[in-house]
């Protein structure tokens, strides 16, 4: 039975990692946290949590609670991602925009019998900023010819952490 539980948690991690597997989106950070739970990697789990979620699940007992809650399900889906709050400010390099976003996301467990159950509603907080990518210059094939340079780019970056599970 113990091996079945770990196999189920492995499937959980696989079913949640279809997302980007980074902290750049709510689904991505939830997927990474699920992978950490599946691997019993408390240090990684702690790195994906903040606030109430870190207090409640960022220890061995809390991780065990997550494992016990998630193990009955064959796979997981995300539903109802909602932007609950955003704060505007300077994202860096003079770009105005959101600097903080708080999302709500339902985590739905699907049983082997295909029954869907809302297991958690996750609150995910994302900091938003601009990153500078230097433009690239190409040198002409003919000495003394004009140099062609692409301008610097400033893509928006979002870094998210799970701050509550209800």
In words, what does this structure look like?
The protein is an alpha+beta fold and 166 residues long. It has one domain. The chain contains five helices and six strands; from the N terminus they run αααααββββββ. Strands 1-2-3-6 form a four-stranded antiparallel beta sheet. Helix 1 (2-16) runs antiparallel to helix 2 (26-38).
What secondary-structure arrangement, pairings included, does this model have?
Blueprint: H1 2-16, H2 26-38, H3 42-47, H4 51-57, H5 60-70, E1 75-90, E2 96-110, E3 116-130, E4 137-138, E5 148-149, E6 156-165
Antiparallel strand pairs: 1-2, 2-3, 3-6, 4-5
Helix pairs in contact: 1-2
Summarize the model shown.
The chain is an alpha+beta fold and 166 residues long. The chain has one domain (2-165).
Key words describing this protein structure:
166 residues; elongated; 31% helix; 5 helices; 4-stranded antiparallel beta sheet; disordered N terminus; two-stranded antiparallel sheet; alpha+beta; 6 strands
Share of helix, binned = 25-40%
Structural class: alpha+beta
Number of strands: 6
Run of helices and strands: HHHHHEEEEEE
């Amino acid at each position: 039975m113990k091996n079945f539980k770990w196999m189920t948690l492995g499937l959980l991690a696989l079913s949640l990692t279809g997302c980007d597997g980074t902290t750049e989106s709510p689904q991505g950070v939830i997927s990474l946290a699920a992978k950490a739970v599946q691997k019993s990697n408390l240090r990684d789990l702690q790195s994906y949590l903040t606030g109430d979620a870190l207090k409640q699940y960022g220890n061995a007992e809390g991780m065990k609670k997550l494992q016990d809650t998630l193990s009955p399900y064959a796979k997981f889906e995300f539903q109802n991602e909602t932007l609950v709050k955003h704060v505007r400010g300077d994202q860096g390099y003079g770009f105005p925009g959101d600097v903080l976003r708080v999302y709500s996301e339902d985590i739905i467990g699907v049983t082997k019998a295909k029954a869907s159950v809302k297991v958690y509603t996750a609150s995910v907080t994302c900091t938003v900023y601009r990153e500078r990518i230097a433009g690239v210059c190409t040198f002409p094939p003919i000495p003394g010819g004009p140099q062609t340079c692409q301008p610097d780019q400033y893509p928006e970056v979002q870094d998210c952490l799970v701050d509550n599970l209800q």
